[in-house]
Design brief:
It is built from 19 helices and 9 strands. With about 475 residues, it is an alpha/beta fold. The strands form 3 sheets. It has a 4-stranded parallel sheet, covered by helices on one side. Strands 1-2-3 form a 3-stranded parallel sheet.
Length: about 475
């Protein structure tokens, strides 16, 4: 079978029918990405393929470093053509990495280019892409329309003014673009200098003098309400782990006061503060009827040199193995016992946690909302074929596959949406295999309906039910 044929990753007739009849044409509901709302609102165009493809994509940066590419030709002052050339040289070495498949799917789906990218083909492909990028059809809004994106949620800090979202809403842009509340910086108390700069910014935008833990929560809640008024119905939180120690309000207030005065904190104080703060944020989410996405376990900024020179999200994060099961259960139980547990998606980065998290999600289902507690999709280091299959096996074996909210890009690139196709092909491959083997019914109305729901309907119901009513 030819690489990237119509039946790529679809190894039997059942898988092919599931994909082509049920998955291929389903709209995309991308509920977690890092796209710029400004670029969407401005309907921005890109000067060349490097700007739209390699700028900010730390997945590609990491691969290029693995291939011995000098940093100047990745994130430095080298020309855009040189950076593209170095990415092209990396491609042949990346076979079986999802970047190889994504790259060629993106070239084919957006630009109609079926050639394999390599040092030899780079000049011609660079020229072809750049010529097409001059066309209006390659503006940000049209790139989204080209991939049949119906709904996307950006990732936004509490201090953001949401003016770009407001513009898109006024214009009634055909694709729904909603903000997501991402208050990680309000919890990042481990670096008091940077933290205080952020709190000062939060103080200014909220109009509240933040001189205590109570006023911090007041300011955050005010911004939470502002996001709600602007259509936000989801929050996003990243952390390594949580503590099982009791959280005493007076102690948390003291820890905050220490940080506000610039005093360094120990690891135990930081973990207690983050756990307490996250509990309060989750209570806000429940109070306003939001869904919440919890991303945990990542070891961030492991390479100090790159972090100090380039900042976060630059390709030096790692899979972590932090203790998770017991502290997460205690955390969810505290919310559930108070009747304050919102719709929750649990994103793990350590693949061995799949079964544990499906079982935890099952323990906290309460019958009020179908699929209220979710194991999130295989993301970041896990969004490749092997880990996606393992994720689907764990989810279907211990939970309800038919309630899964499906894939998300977690991307900063406007060319990343074929990742949904990649996931859909893998999903159909797994289910088609089981149909051919007689392990599940050969009933296309049943299995095809599940595929269609996972591709779009489940996420739409989960995230937009309340948003559309406001």
């Amino acid at each position: 079978m030819k690489y990237l044929s119509d039946n790529f990753l679809l190894h039997n007739k059942a898988a092919q029918r599931l994909f082509h009849d049920y998955a291929e044409t389903a709209p995309i509901f991308d509920y977690h990405n890092h796209l710029s709302p400004r670029l969407i609102a401005e309907d921005a165009r890109f000067d060349n393929i490097t700007r739209v493809w390699l700028g900010g994509d730390h997945y590609k940066w990491r691969a290029m470093r693995c291939n011995g590419v000098d940093e100047n030709s990745i994130t430095g002052t080298a020309s855009d053509e040189e950076k593209f050339s170095q990415w092209a040289k990396t491609m042949p070495k990346a076979v079986r990495n999802p970047l190889y498949d994504w790259t060629h799917l993106e070239l084919k789906r957006y630009f109609g280019i079926g050639q394999l990218l390599s040092e030899k083909t780079a000049p011609a492909i660079y020229a072809q892409c750049n010529e097409q990028l001059k066309e209006k059809s390659f503006s940000t809004r049209n790139l989204l329309k080209k991939m049949n994106v119906a709904f996307l949620c950006t990732t936004d800090d509490p201090v953001d003014d949401l003016s770009w979202h407001q513009q898109l809403n006024r214009e009634k842009f055909a694709i729904t673009v909603r903000p997501t509340f991402r208050p990680d910086k309000a919890m990042a108390i481990e670096e008091p200098v940077a933290y205080n700069h952020y709190i000062n910014a939060l103080e200014k935008v909220s109009g509240i003098a933040i001189n205590s833990y109570a006023t911090l929560l007041e300011a955050i809640d005010k911004r939470h309400a502002f996001f709600h008024e602007n259509g936000c119905r989801s929050s996003d939180h990243a952390f390594e782990t949580l503590t099982t120690d009791s959280v005493v309000p007076n102690e948390i207030s003291t820890i905050f006061s220490f940080a506000r005065s610039g005093r360094p904190l120990n690891a135990g104080q930081v973990l207690k503060f983050k756990t307490a703060m996250l509990l309060e944020l989750c209570r806000m989410n429940h109070g306003r009827g939001w869904a919440q996405q919890l991303h945990f376990g990542v070891i961030r900024n492991a390479r100090t040199h790159i972090f100090k020179s380039l900042g976060p999200d630059t390709g030096v994060d790692c899979v972590g193995d932090h203790p998770l099961g017991r502290p997460l259960c205690a955390f969810l139980d505290a919310l559930d016992a108070a009747g304050q547990l919102a719709k929750t998606i649990l994103f793990n980065i350590y693949p061995a946690d799949n079964e544990m998290l499906v079982s935890i999600a099952g323990a906290f289902q309460d019958g009020t909302i179908a699929g209220k507690m979710q194991l999130g999709p295989a993301w970041w280091f896990l969004d490749q074929k092997d880990c996606m299959v393992r994720h689907l096996e764990a989810l279907s074996g211990l939970g309800l596959l038919g309630r899964f909210v499906g894939m998300t890009t977690d991307s900063r690139s406007f060319l990343s949406f074929p990742r949904h196709e990649y996931f859909r092909r893998i999903l159909c491959g797994v289910l088609g295999r089981d149909m051919e083997n007689g392990d599940i019914p050969r009933d296309f109305d049943l299995i095809g309906g599940i595929v269609r729901d996972i591709c779009f309907a489940n996420a739409k119901n989960y995230f937009s039910r309340d948003a559309d009513a406001s």
